[in-house]
Amino acid sequence: MAKAQRRKASKKDLILQKAAAMFREKGFAATSMRDLAETVGIEAASLYNHIRSKNEILEAICFDVANRFNTNIDIIEASKQAVIPKVETLLRFHIRQMVENYEEVYVADREWKHLEEPYLSNFQNQRRAYRKKFASILEEGIQKNEIKKIDAPTAILIMLHAVSGIESWHRSKARINERELEDNMIMIMIDGLRKQG
Amino acid sequence: MAKAQRRKASKKDLILQKAAAMFREKGFAATSMRDLAETVGIEAASLYNHIRSKNEILEAICFDVANRFNTNIDIIEASKQAVIPKVETLLRFHIRQMVENYEEVYVADREWKHLEEPYLSNFQNQRRAYRKKFASILEEGIQKNEIKKIDAPTAILIMLHAVSGIESWHRSKARINERELEDNMIMIMIDGLRKQG
DNA sequence: CCTACCGATCGGTAGG
DNA sequence: CCTACCGATCGGTAGG
Asked: A12-69 pLDDT, tens per residue?
């Protein structure tokens, strides 16, 4: 619609964006290339001038999200904060990604199992590595007595999945504002970790 | 294999059980009736002597799970416990269902969007009603000063999704035992709610 | 419970 | 970017 497309990637970006919305709503397997084409406003065959296959779309979404989270945790890991602020920063990043980038993040979280090899293994490895980094932050906090004695993998499981529950907030009618949501979540989860509450 | 089938429902039960396992692993849409038939050990056409359609299988799974949770929350609501023990009982029920009844509960939680009307609306209404009951327990706790001032729907969103994260525990290699998992989760989540931690 | 089969739809390609 | 089309696979039925 604008006078000029900033880069020639623009139509492909539109396809990826619409695909993320549809994969989120119906699931990857239940979304057909004809559905997607109609949403984009072209014929199904024309999609293949911009993407190579249905699976390539999923790959683009999943690895784009993974890269963003990986970059972020590396920055936080390297920072000189105490453990609780580190965890808080990490959680706020997760919450904001889920709020602002809802469709993509949700798809990467729930639909990655439809990736094909070698992408599937690659993605799973990145996930595992991410959780390990997160766990080692928590374990540092436990050692330093900043965090109560809990099983770190269990705490991570709770926190990561709790955040992904923002999908229900997104679809809720009478929802509180974003800042309130974030602060409530942080308060509940951080107090669940802290040593003397 | 046993000398007698206790009831004639037995083969249908096998189909439902195998279907739950496959829907969990691959998703509803990506599981074909031929895949399912092979797992059960019969031809695809023979499935239809026991079930009416693919969607009927999903309905059976989803509403079976919903009924169990609804029955439980009604019992807890009617009990005379204080709020924190009520919430703890509720959470322990969720955790145990997720541990012991993994496949079915997971499918009801993640694949219900593939239900068809009128089952889809029915299921969504039951979900909403369940969350409302849970929220009113929390709100009672906030009023009585047993629980800190938080947004109840947000707290519920956190807790319900945290529990559903037990899927990763299930698939984990080096996993802690069930009792430890349950106690860790309860400790983190209940302390996140409690007034002075 | 099986063989044989239906119409519909799928992801994707040829060729322009 | 479209028309025309491919082979494969889908959920499900007929008939025994």
From this structure: 999 999 999 999 999 999 999 999 999 999 999 999 999 999 999 999 999 999 999 9
Q: What's the gap in Å between the CA of B92 and the closest CA on chain A?
A: 14
pLDDT of residue B7: 57
The two tokens of residue A105 are 């993040």
pLDDT at B2: 42
Task: Report domain extents, chain A.
Answer: 54-193
pTM over 0.85: yes
**Alpha helix (H) residue ranges in A101-177:** 102-110, 119-143, 152-164, 166-171
Residue B150's Cα: distance from chain center in Å? 25
**Out of A30, A157, A191, whose CB is closest to B191?**
A191
CA–CA distances in Å: residue B75 to residues A80, B67, B93: 49, 12, 12
- Burial class from Cβ neighbours inside 10 Å (0-12, 13-18, 19+) for residue A150 reads buried
Q: Which of residues 110-149 of B touch A (CB under 8 A)?
A: 110, 113-114, 148
Third-level CATH fold of A54-193: Tetracycline Repressor; domain 2 (1.10.357)
**B150 vs chain A: nearest CA distance in angstroms?**
6
- Give the pLDDT confidence of A127-183 residue by residue, as tens digits: 999 999 999 999 999 999 999 999 999 999 999 999 999 988 988 887 899 999 999
Q: Which residues of A touch B30 (CB under 8 A)?
A: 29, 114
| Cβ(A62)–Cβ(A24) below 8 Å | no
Any B CB within 8 A of A157 CB = yes
